[in-house]
Amino acid sequence: MKEVIGKKIVFATAAGLFVMAGSIPAMAAEIKKVKIKLVAETFDEAGKPEVDFLTDSDEYEIVGFEERQDHVYEVELAAEDGKGFGRMEQKDIRLTGIKASCSRAVRKGGKEALELTIKAEGLDDVIGEIGGAGFRNGSAVWKKADNACAYAVMLFRNSKRVGYTHRTQGNSYNFSPLMREKGIYHYKVYPLSVNDKKGIPVESEWYSVDESEAEKYRKEYEEVKIKFPGWEQDETGWRYWQKDGIFPQESWLFLDEEWYYFDSCGYMVTDRLIPRNGREYYLGEDGTAR
């Protein structure tokens, strides 16, 4: 495949949707369809995917591209000698790989060049891999995946599920409330995109909890007398214990027609701005999002 990576070009302004301007000399063979593959195999320093545009055509090549807006790119194609771009409809421009759409195509230089405006909507769902997963004092800890906005994590004891699947925006989860019995524990964690698409899961190393450690966790939470699910208040603040006997962590939860956010220790957050789906929400003194 022919590939152009990171080449910056300057495009002339051309108005209209799928405007095909210019004439093609009679001797030039018309290119009636184009096919471009979008891939993203690397991530930038901020953890965002870097897109590449590829083609295996022997009639034209990709000579440059530039991001104009978030996920919107201007891509320039050049016809090979003896070829020229003909008139095309949207169906004639085929995009494969990462989900994308073309909103504009403009011929340049009579026949030699074609300028496309392509929006790569699927970049939001391109997620890197989790680097590793282990335990630290009863807490699951893993390395962040590039472009992941959250994680889905589930616990196992002696290869059987313990509790439910839990969502967190952090890269750790305190499972000690569910580790009150001795056994061999491990967990599975999925990175999630902003659209909740799952990436490649990772299973942690095994962690052995003996009777003394299990007893430590039982004593730590023995003062929790509420009926699950339900709210519990201590000297630090409010926690919401879910039906399986654990509290949400670095996660939003919808309760009684209101949204709440809980910090890494499971306590309800108040009087702060917290981002969610590209917006910031203020959490009042009662913890509800406004």
State the helix count.
1
Summarize the helix and strand pattern as letters. EEEEEEEEEEEEEEEEEEHEEEEEE
Low-confidence stretches: 1-17, 19-25
Q: So what's the overall shape?
A: elongated
Q: If you compute it from the alpha carbons, what radius of gyration comes out, rounded to the nearest whole angstrom?
A: 26 Å
Give the overall average pLDDT: 90
| Protein structure class | mainly beta
Bin the strand percentage. Answer: over 45%
Please estimate the helix content.
Answer: under 10%
Main pleated-sheet profile: 5 strands, antiparallel
Ends: how far apart? 50 Å
Q: Care to count the β-strands?
A: 24
Structural write-up:
- The protein contains 1 helix and 24 strands.
- Strands 13, 14, 16, 17 and 18 form a 5-stranded antiparallel β-sheet that branches. A 4-stranded mixed β-sheet has the order 1-4-3-8, with no helix packed on it. It has a 4-stranded antiparallel β-sheet with strand order 5-6-10-9, with no helix packed on it.
- A hairpin with a 4-residue loop joins strand 19 (230-233) and strand 20 (238-241).
- The chain is elongated, with a radius of gyration of 26 Å.
- The protein is mostly beta strands.
- The protein has one helix at 211-220, and strands at residues 2-4, 29-31, 34-43, 49-55, 60-69, 72-79, 83-85, 93-97, 101-108, 113-119, 133-136, 139-142, 150-157, 160-168, 172-174, 183-192, 202-203, 207-209, 230-233, 238-241, 251-255, 258-262, 272-276, 279-283.
